[in-house]
Amino acid sequence: MDAAVRVVRDFATRTDADLLLFPECFLQGYLVTEEHVRAAAAELASPGFGAVLARLADLRPMIVLGVIERAGDRFHNTAVVIKHGQVLGRYRKTFLTAGESIFTAGDDYPVFDCHGVRFGINICYDTQFREAAAAVAAGGARLLLVPAQNMLRRDSARHWEHRHHPIRARRARETGLWLISADVTGERPPDRLALGPTSVIDPAGRLVAHVPTGTTGLVTADLTPGPGTAGR
Questions:
Q1: Which helix (H) or strand (E) is 24 found in, with range?
Q2: Whose CA is closest to 126, among 118, 117, 135?
Q3: Looking at 25, 69, 93, 114, which residue is catalytic?
Q4: CN hydrolase domain: from which residue to which, for each copy (predicted)?
Q5: Quick check: 160 and 150 in contact, CB under 8 A?
Q6: Which domains does the chain have, with CATH numbers?
Q7: Choosing from 69, 100, 114, 124, which is the catalytic residue?
Q8: Is the CB of residue 62 less than 8 Å from the CB of residue 114?
Q9: How confident is the model at residue 230 (pLDDT cuts 50, 70, 90)?
Q10: What is the DSSP string of 42-83?
Q11: For helices 2-13 and 47-56, angle between their N-to-C axes, nearest 10 degrees
Q12: Strands 117-121 and 143-147: what pairing?
């Protein structure tokens, strides 16, 4: 968690973006074994998570951060919306993979506003289901954020390498939303590989910016809605 917070701070202090998106379960790391989830999960109102928020309080951008959330005796794959160290709200992943049985699915699609741009969230596998993006669009959003975590077995990573963008582009075209994804890259021994993609897709389904496959970086998009407002 300490390393993840340092990464958030690093990106937040070297960009003028109004909104920053980080990958799925980024704070504690996406590992859905019972041992890891039970040990790492955080209640959003807990002192431990409060200490994380305190370290983000001086940052200017709004931050959307992937978190393993504990809520009583349940666990959720959650994206938390944070501004100046305060939790503005959260989205809990609604479509879970077979390997995510330790999580409880969410049941709502909240929307948020950042400098005149309304946005909602789908998490990774949610994008396989058109109703998840449609629910965000129905809330009046202009932007769909997709924190993702495609750390896969090597053969699967290569199989999906060129399939993520077409799926996400389909959701953008169906809804007329901009879609911005943040994914992971790297390797996890002995056989896991992550290639991304972190990217920006416009409402016509066109890929307008992306971090090159297998590398780490930052992409930005200007969604300014009109004179005098900003929505990066």
A1: none
A2: 135
A3: 93
A4: 1-225
A5: yes
A6: 2-210 (3.60.110.10)
A7: 124
A8: yes
A9: very low
A10: B-TTSHHHHHHHHHHTT--SEEEEEEEEEETTEEEEEEEEEE
A11: 20
A12: parallel
Per-residue pLDDT tens for 115-141?
999 999 999 999 999 999 999 999 999
SS (H, E, C) 144-202: EEEECCCEEEHHHHHHHCCCHHHHHHHHHHHHCCEEEEECCEEEECCCEEEECCCEEEC
Report the sign of the C-alpha dihedral through residues 160, 149, 105, 166, in that order. Answer: negative
Question: Strands across the sheet with 192-195, in order?
Answer: 151-153, 192-195, 185-188
Say which DSSP state 211 is in. Answer: P
pLDDT band at 228 (very low <50, low <70, confident <90, very high): very low
The active-site residue, picked from 24, 25, 69, 100, is 24
For residue 189, the number of C-alpha atoms closer than 13 Å in the C-beta half-sphere is 0
Residue 141 is which amino acid?
A: A
In the chain, the percentage of residues whose pLDDT exceeds 90 is 95
| Residue 83 annotated among the catalytic residues of the structure | no
Catalytic status, residue 100: no
Q: Report the C-alpha gap between 46 and 161 in whole angstroms.
A: 38
The string of pLDDT tens digits covering residues 45-93 is 999 999 999 999 999 999 999 999 999 999 999 999 999 999 999 999 9
Q: Are 65 and 22 in contact (CB under 8 A)?
A: yes
Residue-level pLDDT at 225: 64
| CB neighbourhood size of 167 (10 A) | 11
